[in-house]
Amino acid sequence: MTSRTEAGPFTSGIARPESKIRSYARLGKLDVYDYYPSVAVALSAVLLPVSGLPPATIVTLALFLFGAVFVIVAMVSLDDVTGYRDGSDAANYGPDDPLRNKLRKPLVAGTLTLREALGFGWATAAIGAVLWAAAMATAPYRPTWTVVLVVVLFVFSVQYSYGLKISYRGFQEVFLAGLGAALVMGAYGLAAGHFSGFLLVQGVLFGFGPLLFGVYSNTNDIPGDRAVGRPTVACLVSPKGNAVFIGSLSAAEFLIGAVASAVGIAPWWFVLLMLPVTVLRVRQYLTGFRQGDIMRARKLGFPAHRVSTVLLITANLIVGAGAAG
Fold first, then answer.
1. 147 and 114 in contact (C-beta within 8 Å)?
2. Domain-embedded: residue 186
3. In a domain? residue 65
4. Model's pTM, two decimal places?
C-alpha cells in the first residue's frame, strides 16, 4: 500500500491499484510510441537497394532506436516529476476533468513515489546516453553535424521540463516538432553520412505529428499550465487566437510539403501523396474547434501522425526503388 506521506499531497492515499512495472510503464508513456518510428523513416531512405546497405547500418539504427526509447522515457518521466512538484498535473488530472485518466500520472495517483520516479528518470537517461554513444561508435558514418545534433538532442531532451525547463520558457511547441525532426535527421546522418533537404522536410513533417496532438493537449490544460506559469501558446493568447494558431500549424504542415514539391526539394508527387494527412487534419481541427471536443481532437492526432509516417516511408521507398532501377 502507498501511504499519503509517500505519495505526496496530491494523491488520495488509497491502496495501490496496479503493479510497479505497470506504473513505471505509465510513467515512461510506453503506450505513446509516436516518436519512435522516426528511425523507420530514416531507414526507408537508405534501404534500397538492399544489396548496398552495410550490415553496420542495421546495428546502428537499432541502437539509435533503443536509445531514443530510453531518452524519451527519461524526458517524460522527469516531466511528470516537475508536473507533480508544481501541482499542474494534479490540476489537469484531477476530479474536475473526468476525461483524463489519473493512473497515467503515477505520482498523482500515488502508485509511485517521487524518489522512485526520479531514480527511474535518471537511470533511463543514462541508459539512453550509452545506447546513443554505441550507435555512433558502430555507425558507418559519423558526420560532425550528426554527432553534434545527437549530443544536443540528448541534453535538451532530459531538460525539457527539468533542469533548464525548456517547456516552461516558451519553447514547448518548437521543441515538440524539433524533437521529431532531430530524431529523423540524427538516425539518417549516421546511416547515410550526408545531409538531405528532402529528409529534413520529412523530419519536420514527422515532428508536426507530436506537435499537433500536443497543442490540443495544451488547449485542454490551460488552467493547470497557467497556474504554474507554463507559457504555452494556448495560455498566452485568447481562445480565438489559439484556434488560429492551431489552424495555421495544420495549414503549414500541408504547405511545407507543397513548397518542397514546387521547388524540387521533394518529388513533384510528394504533395499529392501527403494529401490524406491534410484531410485528417481538417477533421481534427473541426472536431476540436467547430464541435468543441478538444480531447477527441487530440486523440485524432495519433492516427493522423501514423498515416503521415507510413506515407513518408512510402515516399522514400518509391524514390529508392527508382534510384535502384
1. no
2. no
3. no
4. 0.91
- What's the rounded Cα separation, in Å, for the pair 154 and 282? 34
DSSP letter (8 states) at residue 16: P
Residue 295 to residue 289: CA distance in whole angstroms: 11
Q: Cell numbers for 114, please give them.
A: 517521487
Residue 102 included in any domain: no
Burial 169-208 (b: 16+ CB within 10 A, else e): eebbbebbbbbbbbbbbbbbbbbbeeebebbbbbbbbbbb
CA distances from 153 to 7, 44, 62, 184, 262 (A): 32, 22, 18, 11, 31
DSSP class of 53: -
What letter would DSSP give residue 277?
Answer: H
* pLDDT at residue number 94: 61
What dihedral angle (degrees, nearest 10) is formed by the CA atoms of 150, 151, 156, 159? Answer: 130
- 97-134 pLDDT tens trace: 554 567 888 998 889 999 999 999 999 999 999 999 99
Rounded CA-CA distance 61/251 in Å is: 32
Cell numbers for 77: 518521466
Q: Is 165 left (phi over 0), alpha (psi -120 to 50) or beta?
A: left
Counted domains in the chain: 1
Q: Which CATH number belongs to the domain containing residue 275 in this structure? A: 1.20.120
Domain that holds residue 241: 196-325
Residue 51: its pLDDT value, please? Answer: 87
Residue 256: half-sphere exposure toward Cβ, Cα within 13 Å:
21
Note the residue count of the chain.
325
Does 204 map to a domain? yes
In sign, the C-alpha dihedral spanning 249, 250, 255, 256 is positive
